[in-house]
Amino acid sequence: MASEGASPNGSQYYGELFPPLSSSSQFPTSRQSMRTNSIPAGSKLKSKNITQSLTIPIQKCTFNYFGTRDQTMSDACKLVRTETNCQLEVNSDRDEICIMITGLAENVKLAKQRLTYELETKETIQMLVPKDLHKHILGKKGQKLLDIQKETGTKITVPRADTDSEIINISGPKEYLARAQQRLNEIIKDRATKNAVSVPFPKEYIPFLQTKESEIKNKFNVTISIQKFSEVRLMGEISQLDSAKEYIHRYERELNSKIRTVKAHIPKSKYKYIIGKDGKNLREIMNKFEVSVEIPAKDDGDDQVVLRGTQEKNINEALNDIEKKMNSFLETVLKAPPWSHRYLIGYRKDLEELNLGYSKVNFEFPRLKTELGMNEGDSVREDEFKIRGPPEEVLLVKEHLEQLLKDILLTLTHEVIKLNNKCIITGFNNKPTLAFLLRSAVSKARVNGISVRFWPEKKQLTLDGDIDRVSQTKEDLLSKISIIGNSKVRDLVVEHFLHPLVRGEPQSADSTRFLENKHNVRIKFFGIEDDPSEVIRISGEISHVDVAYEELKRKVKRLQEDTVSANVKLYKEFFEHLETRPGRRVRERIEVETHSRIVLFGENCVANLVGTERDIIKAEALVIEAQDKFLDTTTETILIPSQLHRIIIGQKGKQVQALEAECGGVKIHLPSQDQRQSADENFNPDTVTVTGPSKSVHKAVAKIREISSSPENCFEGVKISPQYMSYLRRYRRAGGMLDDLREKFNVRIYLPARYDKSLSEDEKKIITLIGKEKNVNEAKKVLKQIISGLEEEIKTPLDIPMVYRRNFFKRQAQLLIDLEEDYDISISLSKGSEELCEVTLEGPKIFVDSCYQEIKDLVQAWDDEVTREETVDPMHISRVRGPKNQNLMNLEDEYNVQIKVINLSNQNPVLSVTGAQTQVDNAMDRLLSAIPIEREIDIPPRYIPSLIKSGEANTIEQKHGIKINFPRRGSAGMTILSGGAEGVEQASGELTDRIEGLIQEEDFEASKRYSLCMNIEREYHGRINGRGSMFRKQIETDFGVIIKFPSQGSDDTNVHIVGIKENAEKAEEYILKQVENWESQVSVSFDVPHKYHGRIIGAKGRAINKLKEDFGILSIDFPKNPSLPNQNTIRVTGSEGNVNSCKDYLLEQVIEWDENNPVEIQHEYRRAPSNLPASSHHSTGFSLLDAPWKDPSQPAFSQDEFPSLQSAHSQPSQSDNWAAKVKH
């Protein structure tokens, strides 16, 4: 069967293969569709929001803002954003803060005022305003004052009414203070021209007078204020006040004669329906019936409502209206268990989820009540659920809720589970929490949709949810509670180094994990490597814990018998390597091979090895071997006189330990006392051995030689009792007399280490002096005098001026404590007289004398103290003080002076520096140098973006601690540097040098843009460009230029060379030589059968490249279109002799190829394959029926409708049909 679209003989119909397209009118374009759905051209949508910017200079900010977001800034923006409902975007630099404010116009204005007040530096002024005018500034409930503050952007503080103060404080930004002051003056001036008078008026008639309030204002041009307690305040001109007062009295008399009063008993629960929201219903009754309604107070025992009016008819109508309002609402109660309330309310506490659709119905949720003995968080809910609204709707809602409650009670349930003391443990932050076993069960229950609540004070759990699931969860929890009640905890104390072996491998049958699963217990190891603990805790059921405890105890005992621990000190580099991932693999390999454990302690680069003695020895050897393999370790031995070994060791061995740590953990070995006393003849007591990495060893040897290379050759010892030896130790730390001896006599004095076990008791009593013999003898005499001075205890008084007594107790008596610790004496101060203070020094004579002289020097220094004061601009005082006064404290410690800031809150703060004259001057100069100065430098505007974008300006600011203020974009101006004098000077020079460098770079770049033009025939452009632009790129690389050719299709023959002038000229010379060489070449064309062109070219062009190389020719060109008549012609270009030689060679090759390839073989590929059926050789091909070009009325060929894919000069054969073309 023929397929659709095919004729019986296999031809296809044109109309079926190419159906006509629909008209464009039926399918509008997307542009037309958009145009029809777009907004009418006449209408415009305009946003009500506006955006304005607020700029605050850094100098005016109330906080220090240098590129970091201050908390004050964040809080202020958050507050203003909440108050004004505006969007804020903060941008800042080192000079100013720019805040973009977006919102409604009035909100934007308010936000700018609030931000200015919050962020800018505030000033305060005071105004003296009479007390009786304060209420006019405050206004009703203080609203007028709030409006003034909002309008002026300031903070106005009015003194309390119960005080006698008449001073009003105005604080805010400087530019806003005048505005607020002017506003207050206007109020004062306005009130000065008016008088006020009080008119008594019956309280029960006040509602009737309120209806006349606007009439009185308009008629008499006065301000009326009706008070709550039988008083009316009038304010205005005196003449108008009298008339208004008379009018009010007349109205009062009129009311007295007309008013009728009716009382009605109404339940107090109905009062809120009569009053309405904010008294709305009462005002409606007054306006509609001219009847006032007086509601008694809630705490009043009377329930009578009083109605007053001028006509009984209106009063009766008002009573009917009140009755309607009372009966328009119904309140009912729905009782439900407290736990079910949240299911009625919904998880989002929104009764709209009930889909009732009754908008006038209100719900009053039951409140939490606190039972006796319960904390605030432990509360229960009332079982009443109140519904209030129109009677019909309330009844429908109640019916719906009752049905909903019935469904809840049928599907859900509530259970309470009591807990014992073991179920509650102390958790994080000492808060009570459930035991681990219960926590896991509770988490599982919550996953299953059960609501579980924990009440620690009541010691209970409450469960809410599906009846079956709650029942199952309750059984599970009760079983857990039973297990916990029968649980037990036992602690096993085991050395911490054994913990890894006790824990074992996780998959091992001897591990604690296997033990936990076997006995259903939990085993916990306490402590970590850096804070080891020896406790292993076992918890679980009583019987299981005891069995597991005994089994674990036997394992520990076996390990203790077979296990030892050893520490191996490692080199720092290898220790750090062991902490990395490759190092962990090394540790694991050693542990597996030796069945031991390796624990690293980072403080001293120590590896702790745990295992049997044999395993430890093997593991230690493997660790040392791995260390030697990782590091190029070496051992170097040097000879240092044994008398100098103590110098190398230092006090308590600290010097040698510091050397080892400084040199990467090398091991420095010096002979011990036992080795020095041995009778071994081959032992040299002067030997010092250093072992470790080669670089570290060389460094340590150099340090040791440096310490021991001093020229001293005399050693003397002075014996002293242990008591005075401790004196000298303390005195030595204070930098006292022993240091003076060292400097004066150029000797070294070494005190024996107190806890050196290698020293005998006699050696610990000897002080060693090392140096030249003469210097040592003199120092020894002075040292004996010092020792004799230690043996004499004295008590010496000293009188100092009373004004200096407080100096000893400043900073928590730091000076007094330092003196006592430095000299190891007792110092007491007592009042000798009104002008003198007695200082008593008690202790060793030599120490007392030294301290006595130091105190006298201190007093003399205090007498010689001077005070220098300098006034500082308030804008710069925070910069001088530094964060938390850090700059001042640093200078006090550096120059030993006292610095104060006086009158900090005033406009002219003063810096006061007290101390010695020289120190005061130096400290003050340092302080004043922190005050910023300004300097202008001229930077061309074109260089400013480069300095900013590259970060150079920011780097200079941070480097020199200054600020750089560039002129605004597009404006001509000077660049201002502000900061310390030294920083500004250095930054100015650095910026000037940088600008000069930019100018030089600009000149260099301009020289690179030099352009040179050459007129070269277009036939050589391609040769200059080269294949794949290789030749052009080579020229550009060699000469550092850029070569530009004219565009394709243009008649321009100019070639441009761009670059440095010198390079461009060299490139021009080179190119002209190449063109001259090409012009001397000749081209010869001859025919070579097209079938041999591929042989001439060869695979990947190897054959043609070899021809060019052998014959020295420039190029061989082949026809680009093989279908052209001259498809056999090739062209050879080069020197005349080489071209002819190449031509002869190619023609000879053609003859040879023809002889070796008969014609039959050459055309064999054209024959049809023998396996094809005969019918396939006579196929009619593909043809179309009813095609437009076969219509006799249409032209045979339309170039527009069927453009030719061939070149323009080729025409298709008239005898060829479409089928033939497809066939061949």
UniProtKB/TrEMBL annotation:
InterPro entries documented for this protein: KH_dom (IPR004087), KH_dom_type_1 (IPR004088), KH_dom_type_1_sf (IPR036612), KH_Vigilin_N (IPR057778)
Keywords: Coiled coil, Repeat, RNA-binding
Key word Nucleotide-binding present: no
PROSITE patterns: KH_TYPE_1
Classification via Pfam families: KH_1, KH_Vigilin
Low complexity bias: start-end ranges: 17-33
Biased composition (Polar residues): 1-12, 1172-1182, 1204-1217
Region of interest: Disordered: 1-44, 1169-1224
Domain K Homology positions: 121-189, 258-327, 328-406, 486-557, 632-709, 712-788, 864-932, 933-996, 1008-1076, 1080-1151
Coiled coil region boundaries: 542-569
Highest taxon of the lineage: Eukaryota
GO molecular function, one term: RNA binding
UniProt name for this protein: Vigilin
Organism, as annotated: Oopsacas minuta
